[in-house]
Amino acid sequence: MTAETRQNTTKLFNVHAISTTVPLFNRRPFPQHLTTMARSKPSKPSKPQQPAPSSPSSLPPWPKFKPPLPVVDLFPTSHPLTNKVVTLDAFFPRSLCRDYVAHLSALPLQTTPGTPRRGDAVRVNDRLQTHDASFAAALWEKTGLREALLQDDVASLWGGEPIGLSPNIRVYRYTKGQFFDCHYDESNNVALEADGKTVQARTTWTLLLYLTGVSEGCVGGETVFYPHDRQSEAEAICVSPQTGMLLLHKHGDDCLLHEGREVRAGEKWVLRTDLCIRR
């Protein structure tokens, strides 16, 4: 969907990269239902991170990719109204999504405070953040994602040469009544390890993997984009959670104003990381 609206750390998490979300400000009239002060939309990425330690995460091992991925041919599809929003259907099979939800449900997620910090978008959800370069590499190399994003018809979208995913892995759970109000996602400079070397990179797209959808009883929770930096139902680009679907959207200077709408029933589970290009 980078430094996030709030940094959550516990003794279980070794967090080296924070994702930032920046709310709507200074460009169009500020939505009245937002209660936070405004910062301007970011124009520069944050300072580079240091390479990650080899085994920074103390979380239990992630479930293995069973069956082996991909289970279907992956075809990145740009939204018909904008090339800043791309989806890949059936990136994870339903069985693997169930395994991941069961795994993540046993972990100690933290609920975001009801009152945000000055300048932060209003959000209410349960979340976990961890630095895991091995898992990020597996998502990139062992799922068919790398090959899918390098296809000729979409390769030019990413802003440069994609070389991997951010090791800053975030888990979001939205239950009934929880939401993420209008905001932008920032771009970050990161350092990735590749072939034993440190490669300087920059994040350009947010990746959201939906682990639940309507079939699991999730009602609401749509990710909604507004192309003209203002809330307008007539212009809204609405993406409903679908189990196993991967949603990518451009962030940084070209990020669309977007929100995660309130979940009205069930639970919405999301895995978040970011696409990295070579600097």
TrEMBL record:
**All copies of domain Fe2OG dioxygenase, residue ranges:** 164-277
Transmembrane regions listed in the UniProt entry: none
Q: Does the keyword Iron apply?
A: yes
Task: Using the UniProt annotation, give all residue ranges assigned to the region (Disordered).
Answer: 36-62
Q: Which residues form a coiled coil?
A: none
Pfam families (alphabetical):
2OG-FeII_Oxy_3
Q: Which UniProt keywords apply?
A: Dioxygenase, Iron, Metal-binding, Oxidoreductase
List the cofactors: L-ascorbate
Query: Which residues fall in a compositionally biased region of kind Pro residues?
Result: 48-62
GO MF: iron ion binding; L-ascorbic acid binding; procollagen-proline 4-dioxygenase activity
Q: Cellular component terms, GO, for this chain's entry? A: endoplasmic reticulum
Instruction: Output this protein's name.
Output: Fe2OG dioxygenase domain-containing protein
Species of the source: Beauveria bassiana
